[in-house]
Structures are given as structure tokens and as C-alpha cells.
Amino acid sequence: xxxxxxxxxxxxxxxxxxxxxxxxxxxxxxxxxxxxxxxxxxxxxxxxxxxxxxxxxxxxxxxxxxxxxxxxxxxxxxxxxxxxxxxxxxxxxxxxxxxxxxxxxxxxxxxxxxxxxxxxxxxxxxxxxxxxxxxxxxxxxxxxxxxxxxxxxxxxxxxxxxxxxxxxxxxxxxxxxxxxxxxxxxxxxxxxxxxxxxxxxxxxxxxxxxxxxxxxxxx
Length: 219
Fold this sequence. Notes:
The protein has 219 residues and is mostly beta strands. It is 11% helix and 43% strand. It is built from three helices and 14 strands. The chain has helices at residues 22-33, 66-72, 127-132, and strands spanning 6-16, 37-47, 50-62, 77-78, 81-82, 85-86, 99-109, 119-123, 138-145, 158-162, 170-173, 177-183, 186-193, 199-203. The strands form four sheets. The chain has a five-stranded antiparallel sheet, covered by helices on one side. A five-stranded antiparallel sheet has the order 11-10-9-8-12. The protein is globular.
């Protein structure tokens, strides 16, 4: 099977270490992962919920398929996605002894997603958008998704969308959305855009790639 033009392995790492170890650990992770592909490590510093942990986010463009890369790193896949890694009582190590936990995911598609979590987009006139009553509306992108049953090199993106005054998300294809050049910081599932593109509802930290609110599978 042909490799997808766009391939991404993302990792979220939590390490038990003081803040002064931030840069050294980031460089260690970059070096350790470099044999698998092109690596960018984002050192986020102490994790707000557990300040004794340093938080790192990794974007890895694998040399081969993204799932094969994750399997080579020791992750397993089940019915719900890729399983998390957590340090066990017998002292198992992932990348570095300081790593306490890790989450991971794989994305493969024909092209990179045009929109990111928190982008404010305007809905174009499409049949599916008309059925939802969203033509011309400004909404907030929650999460990019695609049909996993489509061959990776042919996958195109759909997005969950947060709509003002509505608890549930709706989903539309990328071709039905146009950028506005604005972004908001999403937190939770109840964020919309009011008149003039002003965000309404809860505002907080951005969602990561594994967030809830993804599109349901199509019939």
C-alpha cells in the first residue's frame, strides 16, 4: 500500500523532573526519536495539574507508516485507539527513566489538515451545510477527523464544529469550511462564536489531538 503523503505520530510525555531539566530532556527525546523520522519536541514546562511533572509534546514525521512507527516504539492498538504507556512498579522505561507516562496517536491522510483546534471558520454553501442550517455561520473547529476505512493516501478531513447555543457538535468536510484568520482557545465542548466572531462559552487551554468531540463514522 502506498504511503500517505501526510504522516504524523504525536506523543504527549510526562516526566518526573525539576524545571531545570526541561531543555536537557527535550534534547534527549529528540535524539532518541530521530532514527524514526523528523522530530520536533515542544517543552511545555511543569504540567498545571501536576506541577511536579514536566510536560512535553512531540510531532514526529515517520519515515514509514505512522502505525508502524508507533508499534516500533512499543505502543499497542485496541478497539479504542492506541493504548497509553505508564511506568510500572518493576521500573519499565520509555525513552528515558524520568518518563512517568505517555500518550500517542497516528494520523495519515492525503494532505495535512487545513484547520486546527480553535480555528474560527465560516461555513460555505454546501448541501450538507444547508441541511444543518449552518450556511454562512461562523463556528469553531474542535477536532480534525477522517474515515479510517479509506486508504491512508486517499483520506480527506472532516471536522467537529462547536456552534453557538448548541451543546452537541456537528461535522462537515474541509471543503465546506473557509478560514477567517481568527482563533480561540477551546476548553470543553460548549464553545461557540457569537456576532462579530466573539467566542462564547468556556474559554481555556487548547485541546490536543486526542480530544473528545470527534466526528461519528458515516453510515
